[in-house]
Amino acid sequence: MESSLPALLWRPSRNQVTFESGLAADHALARLQAAFGDEFRGRVENDGVKVWRTRDFSSSQGTFAPIFYGVFMSTGTGSRLEGHFQMHPMTRLYTAAWIGLSSLLALVFLVAAAQRATPNATAADGLPILFVALLPLAGLLLVRFQQAKGRGDEEAVQRWIEESIGEVG
Q: How would you classify residue 78: left for phi > 0, otherwise alpha for psi between -120 and 50, otherwise beta?
């Protein structure tokens, strides 16, 4: 598992997934598009695909739900779909803004408290600063929780793609 903040926000929990198919790329794309239904939806454009699990079946709903982004490539024996799972781009932007701005706010509170500190200050005077300092952690924990919740959806999408076009690599 990744532990750094940029990796947590920008890299999916399963960075790369590869599917091999004995079908030509255009036939595999057509099979994927024909297989969309009640549980799995998506978009097929040129050689790229975007697949997600619908709300009725998804365990992680809303913008935190994992989306598979992939590109088909022709191989000597058929085609290969290479891609990755990630949260919606706006969710990643919002999360990065939340963590960045709440970290800045915590720094501002810390500097203000340091300037007003007196020899008679107690630990209770630091409680408001502690609350503000926990805001970035709250954002980070929310992302981790939603990623863990979405792993079942990632596995379901992988199985669905395997059944539709071929094997996972």
A: left
Burial of 108 (0-12, 13-18, 19+ CB in 10 A): exposed
* Distance between CA atoms of residues 88 and 11, nearest Å: 12
In a domain, 116, yes or no: no
| pLDDT over threshold 90, residue 6 | no
Provide the residue range defining the domain that includes 26: 12-87+150-168
% of residues, the chain, pLDDT over 70: 89
Do the beta carbons of residue 18 and residue 81 sit within 8 Å?
A: yes
> Residue 19 maps to which CATH number?
3.30.310
For residues 14 and 156, the answer to whether their CB atoms sit within 8 Å is no
Entry pTM: 0.77
The number of domains in the chain is 1
CA pair distance 19, 162, nearest whole angstrom: 7
pLDDT band (50, 70, 90) for residue 2? very low
What secondary structure, in 3-state letters, does 122-137 show?
Answer: CHHHHHHHHHHHHHHH
